[in-house]
Amino acid sequence: MEFNYSIVDPNAATFLQLQHFLEEYEGLQCVAHDTEPRKALDSILKYNPDVLFINLQECATECFSMVRDLYQYLDTPPVCIGLAQTKDFAYEALKHQFFDYWMLPFSEFDIRKTLLKLGKRLPAPAESPVICLQSYKDYQFLDTNEILYLKADNNATDFILKDGTKISAFKTLKSFEQQLPANFVRVHQSYILNQDYISRINYGKNRCTLKFAKAELPFSRGYRQNVDALKQALSLKSLSGNN
């Protein structure tokens, strides 16, 4: 199983014990630890963890308020697991749709059962398609999520990555067009871009701006239909900000 988690716990001893138990499971990564619900809310909105462990013993009211706030700001709030020395907060945790409620001190058996249930509930991380660039006896494998755009260079193709790296392959742009996943769109005779990184489409200048390196790529009349479909798809995912 793989997921990111955050811990809200003012008690250092409890936090360290929980970390100790969770370290036994591969694929689990702690992205934040906060001692106060108010600070925790900011961390959760920043890192968007899959799972949130909350020690309710000392500040239950504030913690439940924080959980309610999460439903206002996140489409998919983290799965919440409550910790407490008594069952006093169990009913309130149930009302707030907590996934589980652990009694302190920790039970390794309870932790194992909950994590196994979580493994079934949380979606498996999507694997990034990989493309192979072959040059004679040299094989290079690229994670397509790292590709910003492709540029034709005569009979070769340059792959421009998010970090600015350029990798050349001795095949035409057209030969790669059918190999790429659906989020890659051809907008010009010489360019294919990764739509996940588009920040702006300017019809006046016939330009697409990408998030990384502020790259601006031209689009041509022959691929205007692709750009229109791209604009429509991105508009559906965004909030309207028309002037």
From TrEMBL:
GO terms for molecular function: DNA binding; phosphorelay response regulator activity. SMART domains: LytTR. Signal peptide: none annotated. Residues 142-236 form the HTH LytTR-type domain. Residues 4-119 form the Response regulatory domain. Transmembrane segments: none annotated. This is Transcriptional regulator, LytR/AlgR family protein. It comes from Robiginitalea biformata (strain ATCC BAA-864 / DSM 15991 / KCTC 12146 / HTCC2501).
